[in-house]
What we know:
Helix content: over 70%
Strand content: under 5%
CATH architecture of the domain at 20-310: Alpha Horseshoe
Radius of gyration: 52 Å
CATH topology of the domain at 20-310: Serine Threonine Protein Phosphatase 5, Tetratricopeptide repeat
Amino acid sequence: MRKLKVFLAVLLASLSLHVHPSEIDSLLRELDMSIRNRPQYTLKRQEQIDALQRKLRLSHSDQERYDLYRELFGKYRSYRMDSALWVANQRVELAKRMKNPLYIRSAELNIAEVMIGVAMYKEGLEILDGIKSADLDASGVSYYYYQYHQVYTLMADYAFSDQMKEHYRGLAYQYKDSIISMRRPGSQGYLLMMSEKLLYEEKYDEAIEILKSCYKTHEEKGYSVAIPSIGLANAYAFMGNTELQKKYLAISAIADIQAATKEYISLWKLANLLFQEGDIKRAYTYIECSMQDATFCNARYRTQEISELLPVISRTYENKLKEEKTQMVALVILTSVLLIILLIALMFIFYQMKRLNVARKAVNTMNEELKHINSDLHTLNDKLQESNQVKEEYIGYVFNMCSLYINKQEEQRKMLARKIKTGQLDD
């Protein structure tokens, strides 16, 4: 039955739930930028902590100091576990001095939270077991149950056998109901825990509707969307929708990085997902960032989770770098060979151009000589034309003289003939 539900959920997801690839690319680029700007976000959070510490030094009453320590613990809890533990111990001492049992139990719960956060589950459970819910107010009881839920959830994740995993998951599930019963219906805490319960019960569609409502509320009110986003990512992971899982992991990671949260889950889960898809460079950057932050925070269980992935991703990334280096060397060699060939070709072209210039100069010289010869020929032609014209004039003159002479002889012949006819022989 469970497998059938999962199959149907996957089928529905593939038919109805889609995310545009460019949206994820845009989110990943924003996440890359956030990681590069991480020192600025850390500095901003440290400035907030420094401001609270200045207020502590100027405080005048134990009540004021106790409230400031509570606020300071909130700044340290997902930032630096060792500092959070110091603040929690200061709260315990101050509460004892104030002789306020409710304050003492609240501060002890802070210590238990830190113990659980640094993977000291036994010590955390001992503190929790030493506190009675009857000694707490309503918000304290909810916090008390949440710490039990958290420790059993983590113990289930790291349990050695499947039987132990199911045992601890069952205990954590019982505390989900306890937490829900202590929170105001419709509140964000109530809805988020209800979504976790629905996810455990494989009611994914209902859980997603609740988480989307929480996400919208957090976004509208300017709250961090990291928690509802990681919930949505988990829901879509159960449904097999990798694209939407990746989208909400990226959104959660951006919110965590920009809030200078050092203890988180979204970024290293996203690194694992990208690693499986072959985006090795981003996966390495994200897992390295996650390890640095977890180490800075001293969140041991996060360090343990990340350390299982880091060597695999790191080794693959190094192999990829070696491969790229080999390709780069081959490319450099090929480029060098091509450059040598290009230089030889350029030298040959230069030599040919030089010969062409010499030939061009020779042709130009010959052209100049031809111009001179042509000029001489034109001059000679002009002279020949002038000589021919003179000859023609002389020939015409001779022909004219001959014609006149012939005409004169003809007239003389005619005159002699007339004289002969008239008998003038003496004349």
